[in-house]
Amino acid sequence: MSKPIVAIVGRPNVGKSTLFNRLAGERLAITDEVPGTTRDRLYAEAEWGGVSFILVDTGGLEVQSSKLKAQKKLEDDLAAQVQAQAQMAIAEADVILFLVDVKDGLTTSDEEVAQVLHRSAKPVLLVVNKADNRPLREAAVEFYALGLGEPYPISALHGTGTGDLLDQVVGAFPVGEEEEEVEAVKIAIVGRPNVGKSSLLNMILGQERAIVHEAPGTTRDAIDTPMEWEGQPLVLIDTAGIRKRGRIQRGVEKYSVLRALKAIDRADVVLLLLDAVDGVTAQDAHIAGYILEETKSVVVVVNKWDLVEKDAGTMRAFEQHVRTTLRFLDYVPVLFVSALTGQRVDQVLPTALRVQEERLVRIPTAELNRILQEAVARHAPPSKAGKRLKFYYVTQAAVDPPTFLFFVNDPRLMHFSYERYLENQLREHYGFLGTPLRLSFRKRGKE
Fold first, then answer.
1. Are 188 and 196 in contact (CB under 8 A)?
2. How far apart are CA 204 and CA 172, in angstroms?
3. DSSP letters spanning 237-299
4. Nearest to 217 by CA among 248, 262, 263
5. N or C: which end of the chain has fewer CB within 10 A?
6. Residues 424/390, Cβ–Cβ less than 8 Å
7. H-run or E-run covering 439
8. How far is residue 312's CA from residue 422's CA, in Å, rounded to a whole number?
9. Which residues contact 255 (CB under 8 A, 6 or more apart)?
């Protein structure tokens, strides 16, 4: 990846997510008073002085003694994975922002984290947060004891000192030639909690990129993972599980769901993950409704297929159940995979990219009108009170999603069943795999 990576690390509750939001310029990370709110690495693009870079938020980095680890082994399983994520962010980073809290002063945990950072041999900027006034800014000198150079006192909440900090960040970037970037395809992995979204992401990437844990709702943020597949830049977006509005808890989960819905909005292609054991649930239909409302291209991925007892007709019957229950017609591909064993996971990205290609297809106007004429000749348009719907011509107004504008004598004569018929005729000729179509009917001039 050509853009430099800046990782924000530090012990829990020192304000990493607040600083992340401040530097990214928007509220991308969930901030909460409860320590440990950020669990996975969270990526965002940021820019300063015309220089673009990737910003990474992390879970709190704590170095525990072996005695403490043995004492709390079971209950700290998830916390241990959070630490691993922070360590991976450090390994990826070109520059590390080590955040400490001036109000807490220098702690043993800070000293232990500093030792980890010394071993990383990466450029480290020591950032002293919550320095909201002059006495607190002066108190930042205490952190010279960490041996990481000059402390930079800031207030992530109010933005004080962040401009000077960004000057230092950009100045610490490695010098290299700027590569011409190909636009990345954004693929969001969405679904209700505990269907295996993070497991699928990890299997696709071939590494432990997102935390996998048995507790539902482990992934709280929408996590952007840049990658490349056969020369095509991609961004995989792992999201928190989406629940029905009535079941969304206040606080962190509430914001997680909003972020997942925003992920659907900014995705090019959505992977809707289902649990083969549970079947299609009302929550799955709820999520499918969001995808349809946003006219997003979609691939339905049925996970945990390895756990289902099967015969020759099981897959076909399940696929039909998916289409009927989720209101998706034959245009949506349905894949049956196991994120645990890797079964058919290699089909996910090729299918998603094919769907993206279909989303950008443009049909020449002459060809469109030929298809329309044949469709009208085969099946006469509807009529009402003795007046029949008449078509003059059609043109494709846009791609992403494909949008078709039909000029007619009276749009009020259009019936939804005939609109569906016209859509099917377009799909019969051009497919538009996994991609919704927009059909618009407009009255032509003097009529």
1. no
2. 33
3. EE-PPP--GGGPPTTHHHHHHHHHHHHHHH-SEEEEEEETTT-S-HHHHHHHHHHHHTT-EEE
4. 248
5. C
6. no
7. strand 438-443
8. 34
9. 30
- Tokens standing for 421? 């018929």
- Find out whether the peptide bond into 193 is cis, omega within 30 degrees of 0: no
What's the one-letter identity of residue 181? E
Task: Indicate the SS3 state at residue 117.
Answer: helix
Hunting for tokens 């792992």 — which residue is that?
Answer: 238
Sequence-separated (6 or more) residues with CB below 8 Å from residue 78: 39, 211, 213, 215, 218
Backbone angles phi, psi at 129, to 5 degrees: -90, 165
* Crossing angle of helices 108-120 and 77-92, rounded to 10°: 40
pLDDT at 202: 86
pLDDT computed for residue 179 by the predictor: 46
Rounded CA gap, 233 and 230, in Å? Answer: 8
Residues contacting residue 292 through CB under 8 Å, at least 6 positions apart: 327, 436
Paired tokens of 210: 């997102």
Nearest in space to 40 (alpha carbons), one of 48, 53, 52, 28: 28
Which amino acid does the sequence have at 215? Answer: A
Instruction: Give residue 40's pLDDT.
Output: 47
Which pLDDT does position 70 carry in this prediction?
47
User: How far apart (Å, rounded) are the C-alpha atoms in residues 141 and 156?
Assistant: 18
**What sign results for the dihedral spanned by CA atoms 197, 4, 37, 121?**
positive
Strands, E assignment, 42-162: 42-48, 51-57, 95-101, 124-129, 151-153
Beta strands (DSSP E) in 280-432 are 297-303, 334-336, 383-384, 387-388, 391-398, 403-408
* Contact between residue 67 and residue 96 where contact means Cβ atoms under 8 Å apart: no
Give the pLDDT score at 332.
94
